[in-house]
Each structure stands twice: as C-alpha cells, then as structure tokens.
Amino acid sequence: MHKQHRMKSRTVQSWSHCVAPGVCSGIEHGGVVYVETCSCGATRQIEANGGREAKSPWSEPSEDRYRGALEGIRFTVRTFRAKHYNFLDAAQRDFLAEIDICLEVLK
Ligand SMILES: [Zn+2]
Ligand SMILES: [Zn+2]
Fold first, then answer.
1. How buried is 77 (Cβ within 10 angstroms: 0-12 exposed, 13-18 middle, 19+ buried)?
2. Where do the structural domains in the chain lie, given as residue ranges?
3. CA angle 63-64-68, nearest 5°?
4. Could you tell me which residues are beta bridge partners of residue 13?
C-alpha cells in the first residue's frame, strides 16, 4: 500500500532464529529482535546484537488483515449509523455515504 513504509510501533522479543537471511552477517544473532509495524499493517523484523543490526525487508499486510480491517470499518459505520440515525446532520450523512461507496469498491 505504501511506497515506503515507516515504523509506527515497535515491539521487542528475544532472538530465536535468523529473521534477515542474506542480509545479516551472523554477528547480529543472539540478542533481540525488534518487530516494527507500519500504519498500513506491513511489518519487518530487525535482529540486533551488540550495536549491530540486520533488517528484514518489509512484508505487506496479509489479505486476512486487510479483510479484518475492512470488516472493522463496515461494523463501525453500521453501528454508528444505527445509533445516531435520527441525529445525523447533512455533513455526517455525506461522510457515511462516501465511506459506503469506498467499501463497495473494496469488498
Ligand atoms: Zn506502510
Ligand atoms: Zn540473521
């Protein structure tokens, strides 16, 4: 989805296996592995040990995550509309209609 992914969140775990084969020299093994996630859902892993780092390429979010996110939006819109049906102003109606059109295209 992005041309260039950017780290939005990062978790750390202990190293268990090579996550950057072909990139690392082996010196990076044995320390920690950072898992970075982009706002679009793409992830990459970075093995780090003693100040050395080896980064895996970014991998795109899986189809499952895409489907999950889409269902989340659909559910949110449906719930919001049901809850506030009688109180929506014109701008809110337009906004929700716009999202409906996008969801139609993406399904
Ligand atoms: Zn991204
Ligand atoms: Zn490695």
1. middle
2. 9-55, 63-106
3. 120
4. 33
For residue 35, list its beta bridge partners. Answer: 11, 45
Express each pLDDT in 73-101 by its tens digit.
999 999 999 999 889 999 999 999 999 99
Non-local CB neighbours of 18 within 8 Å, separated by 6+ positions: 24, 29, 47
The single-letter code of the amino acid at 5 is: H
Q: What is the CA radius of gyration of the chain?
A: 20
CA of 56 relative to ligand 2 center, distance in Å: 9
Q: How far is the CA of 60 from the centre of ligand 1 (A)?
A: 8
Side chain identity at 88, as an amino acid letter? L
CA of 77 relative to ligand 1 center, distance in Å: 24
Residue with tokens 């049906």: 85
- Ligand number, closest to the Cα atom of 48: 2
pLDDT tens digits, 4-25: 999 999 999 999 999 999 999 9
